[in-house]
Amino acid sequence: MIKGTKRNIHQWLQSESLISNSLAIAVGCLTGLAIVLYDHALNSSENLFFGSIYGYPRYYVILLPALGGLIVGVLAHSLIKTRRYDIEEVIEATTLRGGRISPKNAFLEVLASIITIGSGGSAGKEAPVVLAGSGIGSSLARLFGIHGNRVSILLGCGAAGGIAASFNAPLAGVVFAVEVILGELEAKTFIPIVISAVFATLVANTVFGVRIIQASDYHLVSPLYESVLYLGLGICAGILAVILMRFLHVSHEYFDNLKISPVFKPAIGGLFVGMIGYFYPQIFGVGYDVIMDALSNELTLNLMLALVTLKIITFSFTLGSGGSGGSIVPALFTGAMLGGAYGIIVHGAFPTITAESGAYALVGMGAVLAGTSHAPLAAILILFELTRDYNLILPIMLACVMSNLVSSSLNPGSIFTEGLRKRGFNIRKGREIDIMESLLVKDAMKHEVQTVSENKSVKALIALMQSSRHAGFPVLGSDGRLCGIVTLKDLRDKVKHDDLEKDICEISTKELEVAYPDETLNAVLRRLAAKDIGRLPVVSRKDKRKLLGIITRSDIVKLYDKKVLDKMHQRTEEK
Q1: Residue 354 in 3-state DSSP?
Q2: Pairing of β 472-476 and β 452-453
Q3: How far apart are CA 227 and CA 222, in angstroms?
């Protein structure tokens, strides 16, 4: 018994799940520590830039974002050199490059964001922290020689840990990694990401603690009538999200086409930000204080309307010119201003059936974020975990879903994938859709299939699984035609220790999910995910019992990876 226990412990210590979960703990702890260091560095940067002008004329603030932009331009031109890193890069690495990102470039981009935001650049801190977490995951994968899908999982762990630690929102971090970075949910992916998010949050809170956005206690005053008003806010938020995304990409295109040295472009963007910030200093930096003022009903209608427009402009100038930062907090900022202004108007028109404007500011935050990210569940959870306010969860859900519907119909790509789409990569649910729709089952299927007879015993099946290392086989009847499929799950669920002489036909699955040679890989992959299975027999459309081959999830992934590499190589040659 002692030998058996030791053997079981040894097998457990070598199991893939233990290794994955241990690495997830390491990624989470290191990411949480990185967020603590990032927050300290960002505070120091803000004190360095804005503290240094104490006693000088106020117009010096115009020059601070330009100075920060110049430093970032020199840093990017001399050290980063290649295309700049952000959440888009993490998605591309996960989807198209097997999870490979440069830890050096990730670190330099994080440093650039500290300078950009610290000097007054109008951006958020979540892209750098996602990049930091993903860089940690990629580095650990490289250190331990990890390859394949597990590298992408570690990147997802880092991204989840970054969001979780920076916003004190572990649930939102998990959903963000699944909705935005990986695009799909599987047990082997979900568990490590949850572990990483939890440990990142624990480390960040234990060492430093994250300031939560404080909101007053709001309720639905009139559930029926106010729900209609919140749906209206969701529509407005969806339209604003599209405006924000398009203005950002127009700004990118403008600065890309500007015929000056890339070193000076962030300084020019920073100068525009500084000139606007001279009159409206609320647009400088991250802007949590301004958001809380909107939630507390302390801003006027005219000011909030002005800040909606000016934040979009300064955010777009900051990132479009080459500054570094994220888009989540700017989306929350513009959403709070839009919602607050909307709330003042509807509360003035219907004072007896509406809450104060702060309630609408709170809902607007989530709605604009849902519209820009195309990740409504992540937006709902980020908002809930930031505010810890459950009273408005129903209007938040209504507005987020409506905003996402409006935004998705007007702009197919999210703020994280629009750049990839314009470069020819249509990313959805962690896959390049154009490739998945162009490839057929016959391109990836195996024609030589190992089968079992329905009259063979379970004992023979176990021996075959052990020798072949396959976890499932099509089952053929006495006439040599397909009659079912048998998998390791069938053995576990339907066979006891004294049932080894059972015939395979007694435990096999008769109601089959099948694939056809002329189906797209995208359709088959959706079916595999919906049924949580790993393989499908491929049959003729004319005769569903005529076995032509078999296709597995790994077959699809291998062909997809090959075609992605071919496409990227082709685009490189075209440049």
Answers
A1: coil
A2: parallel
A3: 8
Angle at 464 between CA 460 and CA 470, to 5 degrees: 140
Number of H helices, E strands in the chain: 24, 7
- Using CA atoms, how far residue 560 sits from 182, 425, 553, in Å, is 15, 13, 11
Q: Are 182 and 13 in contact (CB under 8 A)?
A: no
3-state secondary structure of 326: strand
pLDDT digits (tens, 9 = 90+) for 531-569: 777 788 898 888 888 888 888 887 877 776 666 655 555
Q: How far apart are CA 225 and CA 232, in angstroms?
A: 11
Burial class (CB in 10 A: 0-12, 13-18, 19+), 470: middle
Task: Answer for the pair 359, 343: CB distance below 8 angstroms, yes or no.
Answer: yes
Element (H, E) at 245: helix 223-257
**How remote is the C-alpha of 327 from its chain's centroid?**
13
pTM over 0.85? The answer is no
Helix (H) or strand (E) holding 162: helix 149-167
User: Residue 259, exposed/middle/buried by CB under 10 A (0-12, 13-18, 19+)?
Assistant: exposed
Radius of gyration of the chain (CA): 27
Listed residue (376, 23, 327) closest to 176, CA to CA: 376
What amino acid occupies position 3?
K
Number of neighbours of residue 573 by Cβ within 10 angstroms: 7
DSSP state of 454: T
Assign residue 477 a region: left if phi > 0, alpha if psi is -120 to 50, beta otherwise?
beta
Per-residue pLDDT at 410 = 94
Inter-residue contact 36 to 204 (CB < 8 Å): yes
Q: What is the pLDDT of residues 110-139, one digit of tens each?
A: 999 999 999 999 999 888 888 888 889 888
Strand 452-453: give its sheet, edge to edge. 452-453, 472-476, 482-487
Q: Whose structure tokens read 């939102």?
A: 172
Pairwise CA distance, residues 176 & 190, whole Å: 12
Mean pLDDT, each 10-residue run in order, the chain (575 residues): 46 58 91 91 93 78 95 87 65 62 83 95 88 87 77 86 88 86 68 92 76 68 89 97 95 91 94 96 93 93 97 96 92 97 95 92 96 92 80 90 96 77 52 60 84 84 79 83 84 74 81 84 78 83 86 77 58 48
* Length of the chain measured in residues: 575
**515: which strand partners?**
538
- By the 8 A CB rule, do 204 and 210 touch? yes
Q: How does strand 482-487 pair with strand 472-476?
A: antiparallel
